[in-house]
Amino acid sequence: MIWQNYIKNFNSFLQLEKSLSINSVSAYIHDIEKFVEFLDLHQIELSPQQVELNHLQDFIRWINDSGLNARSQSRIISGIKAFFKYLLLEDIIDVSPAELLESPKIGRKLPDTLNVTEINKLIIAIDLRTAEGQRNKVMLETLYSCGLRVTELINLKISNLHFNEEFIIITGKGNKERLVPIGKFAIKLINSYLKENRVHINIKKGNEDFVFLNRRGAKLTRVMVFTIIKQLAEKIGLHKKISPHTFRHSFATHLIEGGADLRAVQEMLGHESITTTEIYTHLDREFLRDNILSFHPRARKK
To answer: Could you give the CA distance from residue 13 to residue 88 in angstroms, rounded to a whole number?
Structure first.
């Protein structure tokens, strides 16, 4: 019971003070509950103040033996560290036992990217004879044009569309707002959808400001967007594991390959750290070679 009280307060801290999304908070809480499960299973009676580094190391060995991959282990360790950092901040403990806890080394996972031809094939495969199909085309164009996360797409609001200035306001992770440029083609499609399609939907109360709605007049779910993309990939016989994030990844990759500044891409994607954006610089060797030979002063000398 004593752990539950601390977990409950940690939950409130993440929501109110850190302004994390529901999904992020849920992940952190799950990490702590996993540690409590370990203590219960091994009949170890400890309060948070009594936890030491060796207890946490035993826990990490336990989840490793359970077959959890390095990436998942690293995420759990991050959650554990955040919890004890919170206890330290609240003066509940004097020293964090997780401070020296090491995460397993993991390589950067590069998801599949789509080339322009593949993106066009996916969009062409949409059945535009239906209202849902017309909406889906606009959604995929918006995903690719703006590099949005799926949560940002389904939460996109009409009040945040500033088409005269050619940008939209996006609320990203941690409820942080950013300005994202949007091209004329995507603007034309969204305007057409709003005036010719969405206007005929009987909108549920509380959903009036969301751009994309389902046939019942409610905001779309993440699962629905994943399903739409998966079905389109199967329809065109695309042998890649793709998701809404694949469009975001493709957006960033194509920008960088086209010569966009990495810092500008960082701002558009809403990354706090430039190192996060660098995952999108997995450019092919030919592209890198051509750039070096074209711009490096030594390479141009004969």
So the answer is: 13
User: Same domain, yes or no, for 83 and 122?
Assistant: no
- Positive or negative, the CA dihedral 134, 135, 141, 144 is negative
- For the chain, the 3-state helix, strand and coil shares in percent, each to the nearest 5, are 60, 5, 35
Two tokens at 299?
């390479």
Number of domains in the chain: 2
Residue 152 maps to a domain: yes
Shared-domain flag, residues 164 and 277: yes
Indicate which CATH number applies to the domain containing 23: 1.10.150.130
Question: Domain range holding 203?
Answer: 116-290
User: Is residue 237 in a domain?
Assistant: yes
Alpha carbon distance 114, 108 (integer Å): 18
Q: Spell out the per-residue pLDDT of the chain, length 302, in tens.
A: 679 999 999 999 898 888 888 888 999 999 999 999 999 998 899 999 999 999 999 998 898 888 877 778 888 888 999 999 999 988 999 999 998 887 766 555 555 788 889 999 999 999 999 999 999 999 999 999 888 989 999 999 999 999 999 999 998 877 788 888 898 999 999 999 999 999 999 999 999 999 999 999 999 999 999 999 999 999 999 988 888 888 888 888 888 777 777 777 777 777 766 666 665 555 444 444 555 555 555 444 44
Co-location of 61 and 129 in the same domain: no
Q: Which residues are tagged catalytic?
A: 149, 173, 245, 248, 271, 280
Does the pTM surpass 0.70? The reply is no
